[in-house]
Design goal:
Blueprint (H helix, E strand, L loop, with lengths): L5 E4 L1 H20 L3 H27 E3 L5 E4 L4 E10 L5 E9 L4 E3 L5 E3 L5 E8 L3 E11 L3 E3 L2 E8 L5 E4 L3 E3 L3 E4 L15 E3 L2 E3 L4 E12 L10 H7 L3 E8 L3 E6 L2 E2 L4 E2 L3 H17 L3 E9 L4 E7 L1 H13 L10 H11 L5 E5 L13 E4 L5 E3 L4
Parallel strand pairs: 3-14, 19-22, 19-24, 24-25
Antiparallel strand pairs: 1-12, 2-4, 4-9, 5-8, 5-11, 6-9, 7-8, 10-14, 11-12, 11-13, 15-16, 17-18, 20-21, 22-23, 25-26
Helix pairs in contact: 1-2, 4-5
Keywords: Membrane, Transmembrane, Transmembrane helix
Protein name: DUF58 domain-containing protein
């Protein structure tokens, strides 16, 4: 493995330069073959020019590694780019770059040559003018959730006559990435989240109101002194109270359990559970309800936690967090994970637990819903 650009002459060129040419030059001098002397001088001038060209390439040509994120859903097309800087005064006339891709991604351009024997390796040739920074787009088609990059990126630059090549060190992966969000899989009975649960009785009536929005008056019923509507009281001759606009002030804690408690590994249907979580969060976002997210990824004996928030920006953060889940992540067991969620979760919020079995939720003293393996939303205790 090389750690800096290396210029190498091709084998036949090295043999001719180091062995054949000195012998011919020796014969030309002692046998006075002037035409051979002229050929030798021209040849060594050619070698000198090639050497200088390669030195320019080694010093001034490189691949940039800038951070860029492209966000897609499965089935959509996007592109990553590769930037090559030629800061030298000579053009690049014969060069090739190559890279590897994950098996779930395909290149949507026939200009890229795929090497089947090397798996998902692609390459493309290019030329470039001097003192230019060119960007070479790689159109991609994605089919699965995840984060993908151009990996093992290599660059080779040949001289004008193709007798020598500059090999650049392979870059393990570029910083630019495609973030593929999870599919949104429908959760049945999701409308239950619109109801408040106090004890065992469900109600759609809000107990909260907006004091800045007065919608009328009502008979005074021992409300706060500041709630008295003095103008209406003077007009009607009896105490009247302000009637406020009711508001829906519910908060949710969405909990995603990735761990299979029996085998202590990631659940086999993890993609479906992630899709259910994305759907729940989209629903809460559309209903303008704030929520936080816990995922059973081990972050130093604590789960991954996305704090309480709402709106499209918050939902985008959730989708990105779900997209970055990998099968090799260290996970927390479900029981201690739920304990941590209860300890660090927002007070007075209702929990939506996804991926946990009903027996794992027994003893949970907070209002909660569960989403089972079939994507059915139920109130805690199977109600």
């Amino acid at each position: 493995m090389i750690d800096k650009p290396v210029a190498m002459y091709h084998g036949s060129m090295q043999i001719f330069t180091q062995m054949v040419m000195p012998f011919l030059l020796f014969c030309a001098i002692f046998l006075k073959w002037n035409f051979l002397i002229g050929i030798a001088i021209c040849y060594y001038l050619f070698v000198l020019c090639t050497h200088l060209y390669l030195q320019y390439i080694v010093r001034y040509v490189y691949v940039t590694n800038k951070k860029k994120s492209v966000h897609l859903f499965p089935g959509e097309d996007g592109e990553l780019s590769l930037q090559v800087v030629n800061g030298s005064p000579v053009p690049i006339v014969n060069a090739k770059y190559s890279f590897h891709l994950d098996a779930s991604i395909s290149v949507g351009n026939k200009e890229y040559e795929r090497y089947m024997s090397l798996g998902q390796m692609y390459s493309s040739s290019f030329i470039q003018k001097p003192n230019r920074c060119n960007e070479y787009a790689v159109p991609l088609s994605v089919s699965q959730r995840g984060v993908y990059k151009l990996e093992r990126v290599s660059l080779m630059v040949n001289d004008i006559f193709g007798v020598a090549t500059v090999y650049y060190p392979s870059i393990p992966s570029l910083s630019s990435e495609i973030v593929v969000f999870p599919m949104l899989k429908v959760v049945q009975n999701v409308h239950l989240l619109q109801q408040d649960v106090y004890g065992v009785d469900a109600t759609s009536r809000s107990i909260y109101y907006d004091e800045s929005a007065v919608v009328g008056t009502k008979k005074y019923e021992r409300e706060s002194f500041r709630h008295i509507h003095w103008k209406a009281t003077a007009r009607l001759g009896e105490l009247q109270a302000k009637q406020f606009q009711p508001v829906y002030n519910k908060r949710f804690s969405v909990i995603l359990c990735l761990t299979d408690s029996k085998w202590k590994c990631i659940q086999p249907n993890v993609e479906e559970l992630i899709s259910y979580t994305a759907f729940i969060c989209e629903y809460l976002t559309k209903q303008k309800i704030t929520y936080e997210v816990f995922i059973s990824i081990d972050k130093g004996n604590r789960p991954f936690h996305l704090p309480m928030g709402g709106g499209n920006i918050h939902f985008a953060h959730v989708l990105e967090a779900l997209a970055r889940i990998k099968n090799n992540f260290s996970l927390l067991l479900t029981s201690p994970f739920l304990t941590e969620c209860a300890k660090h979760g927002e007070q007075n919020s209702t929990y939506v637990i996804i991926g946990a079995h009903e027996e794992e939720c027994r003893g949970w003293t907070y209002p909660y819903y569960t989403v089972n393996q079939l994507g059915q939303l139920m109130r805690g205790g199977g109600r």
